[in-house]
Specification:
Blueprint lengths: L3 H9 L3 H7 L1 E5 L1 H7 L7 E4 L13 E2 L2 H7 L8 E6 L12 E5 L5 H13 L4 E5 L8 H7 L7 E5 L1 H8 L5 E10 L9 E5 L8 H4 L4 E4 L15 H15 L2
Parallel strand pairs: 2-3, 5-6, 5-9, 6-7, 8-9, 8-10
Antiparallel strand pairs: 1-4, 2-4
Helix pairs in contact: 5-6, 5-9
């Protein structure tokens, strides 16, 4: 059953202040929900009658397609919507390893795709500036395709955090002025910093860099693409890093 209070609560979770107040986030679609449920137990589960939810231990609320449409953020709802507990914020302290840092990446789709990229390349931590998009916003969660359950996302004062950790992990910043990444000897453990969609990496973050790297363009057109999408660039950088240390 879907009550008016349920509708109000679920719709409110589109906003960060209500996610933090209720300590909940929303996920939709069987693939996303079932993947997240491997780490976080769902607190509520809303499904249509035709959806097989036998894999979940929680008793679902059966609703019809029309009701699902009223609470879904998707253009085409996928039969299941779940409420999960918002993970407690943890301090960004971990052993030296390959990790990502995001400096004001603001597009939800980009952030979700970067989280999915991190999961693919076995990167367990992403450290974000406070002005990076919220990892538990509905559009971000959907874009991760469930990888939000496999990657820990931390929000910090990024320049300060990089300064405190640059002695144990080199800070690699992507920059058009950097060394061709395919010519660089990449360290096995490092912090890879990706910047804002329009402005790149901020000067405060750039000052913490141990190395600057560039993805070269091979276009022969003088009016070709000026830059890469940040999520695409992240995938290229991570792929080269893993290639050198596989």
């Amino acid at each position: 059953m879907l009550s008016n209070n349920d509708k109000k609560l679920i719709r409110s979770l589109a906003q960060g202040k209500y996610r933090r107040r209720h300590r909940l986030f929303v996920a939709e679609g069987m693939k996303v929900v079932s993947t997240i449920a491997q780490r976080y137990a769902p607190l509520r589960l809303f499904v249509t009658e035709t959806t097989d939810c036998s894999q979940f231990s929680i008793e679902p609320d059966i609703i019809d397609e029309r009701q699902l449409t009223t609470i879904s953020s998707l253009q085409h709802p996928q039969g299941v919507l779940a409420l999960f507990p918002l993970p407690e914020e943890t301090e960004a302290v971990f052993a030296p390893q390959l990790c990502l840092a995001l400096d004001a990446v603001q597009d939800p789709g980009n952030l979700g795709t970067i989280i999915r990229v991190a999961d693919w390349f076995g990167i367990r931590h992403i450290v974000c500036s406070h002005d990076t998009a919220d990892a538990y916003a509905p559009k971000v969660v959907q874009a991760t395709m469930g990888s939000i359950a496999h990657v820990d996302v931390h929000y910090v004062d990024l320049p300060q955090w990089l300064h405190a950790n640059q002695h144990t992990m080199p800070v690699a910043v992507t920059s058009l002025r950097g060394t061709n990444i395919y010519d660089a000897q990449l360290p096995s453990h490092a912090i890879i910093v990706m910047g804002n969609e329009g402005n790149g990496v901020s000067e405060a973050v750039m000052q913490q860099a141990s190395m600057q790297l560039r993805i070269p363009s091979y276009s022969s057109n003088s009016d070709g693409a000026e830059s890469l999408n940040v999520a695409m660039a992240t995938a290229i950088v991570c792929a080269e890093w893993r290639r050198q240390h596989s």
